[in-house]
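A reminder from the course coordinator: this example appears on the midterm review sheet, so study it carefully.

Given structure:
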């Protein structure tokens, strides 16, 4: 046990020379980051107004192929606003994977809606579309043209697929299910900037999507996020709601609803503009890393490198190993790797186990509960 993981640790370290400790994921600044940030400071435009926010939104929309991007303070705020503008209401049930970062469920709760946990597929690590369809068949009925949970009587309003570690879910199947059951789709694309489903960038499939630029994501603005949508009206509403719902006027303070101060500062957007310029290179380097890892891991029995699904091009944000849990105990594995200076991490604790969420409805979660004992992330920074 110790032997194979110490061998793996030394091979990972060789990739990341000259590091004693290899972090999980670090930001990469190789372009105009410093220049743009300094420009904000020299000109005084560091806060809520400035040209970089507009440029960042435009470039982001161009890169992802959506009509509009609205930049906000973080990915969680983007999700919160995505749910609000899509029409999620108090007491709606929202179907989300249990195997996701806690922000997905938090955003649902910020809307006073109810997370309803569903299972993932071990082939994609995202929502298992076929299992979801069978589950909806069993537990729902139609009332006044909306989908209702027979057991709770609540409206099931939306599904939030999440593209785990950058690997796109089986989105076409999910779209069909959403149409059949009249559900909205809101994509949690926080991890999947640079990931494509059959040539279309993630974030284009739902009514609206959220993306994150936290420090550990593929590109960063320090902290930041964006709402993506192909619906101009929704984009305008998202911009309005995230900028205190202020009606445009040269001096008057008139706000037409309770808004949010969620706009991304110009300073952060400046960093983001430079990062977006580097994104194509970072994506290439991440794919090279996958190829290195493939060579390493083809030699070790009971350890499999997770590869992108056949229909997808993934950004490979976090490199993922699936270990044979009959052979290796996950915590012992993590202990050995971390002792060797390799910052390996488990996948998230499934949300249906967590105190703030364990009383919410859930489907059978067999795959989720199995994957929790088998999936780890290993160092994933692009080697520059
Ligand atoms: C990172 C992330 C978020 C939230 O992004 P923040 O910018 O950290 O608020 C939401 N969902 C998923 C799946 C994430 O990985």
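Designed residues:
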């Amino acid at each position: 046990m110790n032997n194979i993981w110490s061998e793996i640790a030394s091979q990972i370290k060789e990739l990341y020379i000259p590091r004693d400790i290899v972090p999980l994921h670090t930001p990469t600044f190789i372009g105009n980051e410093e220049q743009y940030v300094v420009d904000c400071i020299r000109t005084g435009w560091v806060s809520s107004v400035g040209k970089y926010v507009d440029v960042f939104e435009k470039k982001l929309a161009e890169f992802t192929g959506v009509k509009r991007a609205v930049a906000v303070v973080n990915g969680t705020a983007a999700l919160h606003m995505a749910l609000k503008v899509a029409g999620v209401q108090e007491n709606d049930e929202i179907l989300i994977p249990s195997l996701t970062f806690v922000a997905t469920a938090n955003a649902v709760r910020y809307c006073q809606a109810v997370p309803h946990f569903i299972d993932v597929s071990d082939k994609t690590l995202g929502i298992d579309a076929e299992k979801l369809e069978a589950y909806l068949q069993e537990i729902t009925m139609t009332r006044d043209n909306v989908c209702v949970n027979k057991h709770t009587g609540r409206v099931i309003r939306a599904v939030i697929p999440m593209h785990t570690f950058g690997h796109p879910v089986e989105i076409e199947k999910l779209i069909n299910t959403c149409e059949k059951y009249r559900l909205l789709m809101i994509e949690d694309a926080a991890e999947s900037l640079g990931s494509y489903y059959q040539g279309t960038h993630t974030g284009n499939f739902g009514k609206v999507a959220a993306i994150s630029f936290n420090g550990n994501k593929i590109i960063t603005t320090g902290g930041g996020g964006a709402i993506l949508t192909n619906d101009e009206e929704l984009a305008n509403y998202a911009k309005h709601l995230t900028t205190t719902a202020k009606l445009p006027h040269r001096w008057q303070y008139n706000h037409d609803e309770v808004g949010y101060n969620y706009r991304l500062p110009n300073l952060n957007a400046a960093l983001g503009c430079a990062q977006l310029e580097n994104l194509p290179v970072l994506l290439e380097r991440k794919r090279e890393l996958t190829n290195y890892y493939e060579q390493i891991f083809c030699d070790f029995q009971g350890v499999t490198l997770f590869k992108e699904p056949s229909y997808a091009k993934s950004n490979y944000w976090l490199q993922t190993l699936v270990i044979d849990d009959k052979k290796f105990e996950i915590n012992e594995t993590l202990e050995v790797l971390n002792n060797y200076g390799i910052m390996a991490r488990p996948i998230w604790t499934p949300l249906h186990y967590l105190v703030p969420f364990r009383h919410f409805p859930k489907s059978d979660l067999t795959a989720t509960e199995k994957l929790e004992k088998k999936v780890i992330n290993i160092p994933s920074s692009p080697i520059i």
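Residues 74-76, 79, 100-101, 103-104, 162, 188, 190-191, 212, 214, 225 surround pyridoxal-5'-phosphate (CB under 6 Å). The chain has a mean pLDDT of 97.
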